[in-house]
Design a protein that fits this description.
By secondary structure, the chain is mainly α. It has 3 helices and no strands. This is Phage r1t holin. It comes from Insolitispirillum peregrinum.
């Protein structure tokens, strides 16, 4: 079950609409970012997503 939740979450994090929604919610909550902060967050998010993708197996590589 945890693998399904993780796979679902990772799939959503790869979608542009997810990030637009997160940014929209943060903006509505009053969070303001400078362009440098936004760039740092985007870079960090890309690094985390890449690390998770690198260390999680593809669903097609499961052994029976």
């Amino acid at each position: 079950m945890l693998k399904l939740i993780l796979a679902f979450a990772l799939d959503r994090l790869k979608e542009r609409s997810t990030w637009l929604g997160v940014i929209g919610l943060a903006t509505a909550a009053g969070v303001g970012l400078t362009p440098d902060q936004a760039a740092a967050i985007a870079t960090g998010g890309a690094a985390v997503a890449s690390a998770v993708a690198a260390f999680t197996p593809d669903s097609s590589s499961k052994k029976d």
